[in-house]
Design a protein that fits this description.
The chain is α/β, with parallel strands linked by helices. 33% of the residues lie in helices and 29% in strands. A 7-stranded mixed beta sheet has the order 3-2-1-4-5-9-8. Strands 6-7 form a two-stranded antiparallel ribbon. β2, α4 and β3 form a beta-alpha-beta unit. It binds S-adenosylmethionine (SAM). S-adenosylmethionine binds next to α3.
């Protein structure tokens, strides 16, 4: 079974030398996050909003959201990723609108209760290697969001071709989870029933499946990610 310390070490290495997840190194926001922003705008709720992103990596989503006029707090347990995110925010000139923090999602977050309008989990909880850790993070989202606040969960599914293959080739200790065959990194993928059960205290306000083609080791794979907006 992989330990939390090993998972963190693997992530520091991935952030130092991007190898498996090249989009996470890019400056372009995730299409799932821009879709969420469009949805928020359609509700007319985007003036001076305050948001938080868990597992923000090098900051592509939070920097983009800050450029849209939001006030962001974003954290990751990788100090290499956070250093880079801070540099990128300064280059873009949004360093006053986004604050990046080194913080483990599985330890109490340094934010006040009910202080955010929205929250982003863009392929982050999928990388927490224990059910206890993922549950803790989910409950921190609940604590820091204002009543009625929104949580975007954009995550991997058991219908994604690459991940399905990984489940067969390199399963981890937990259902629907695998250890990456080259790096050993843990990834949890989900079926819909699991997600609905996991977020049963939340209200689903919007739900889509996002079909896209993703490259892994030079090969194209069809994905069908979950994109769900939950409301506190
Ligand atoms: C797949 S990447 C996604 C990064 C970012 N959300 C994006 O879309 O570019 C997952 C991120 O979660 C971070 N992460 C994994 N476990 C974490 C934990 N326990 N606490 C904080 N960050 C974590 C990793 O360092 C990595 O940056």
């Amino acid at each position: 079974m992989i330990t939390h310390a090993d998972q963190q070490k693997i992530w520091e290495e991935e952030h130092k030398n991007p190898y498996v997840l090249l989009p996470m190194d890019s400056n372009d926001e995730s299409s799932g996050v821009s879709l969420f922003w469009d949805w928020l705008k359609s509700k007319g709720e985007t003036k001076s909003l305050r948001g938080v992103e868990m597992g923000c990596g090098k900051g592509r989503n939070s920097i983009w959201l800050a450029k849209q006029g939001t006030n962001m707090r974003a954290f990751d347990f990788s100090s290499i990723a956070i250093d880079e995110a801070q540099k990128r925010a300064a280059i873009v000139g949004v360093e006053n609108d986004v604050r990046f923090i080194v913080q483990d999602a599985t330890k109490t977050w340094p934010f006040e209760n009910e202080s955010f309008d929205f929250a982003i989990d863009c392929f982050a909880s999928t990388d927490i290697e224990s059910t206890d850790g993922r549950s803790f993070a989910r409950d921190e989202f609940l604590r820091v969001l204002k009543p009625g606040g929104y949580l975007l969960v954009y995550t991997l599914s058991t219908d994604d071709e690459f991940h399905k293959e990984m489940l067969e080739k390199s399963p981890a200790h937990e259902k629907n989870a695998f250890l990456h065959p080259t790096t050993g990194k843990f990834e949890k993928i989900f079926d819909r029933a699991e997600l609905m059960n996991f977020y049963k205290k939340w209200k689903v306000v919007e739900e889509k499946r996002i079909a896209k083609v993703a490259k892994f080791f030079g090969e194209d794979y069809n994905c069908k990610h979950f994109w769900i907006i939950f409301q506190k």
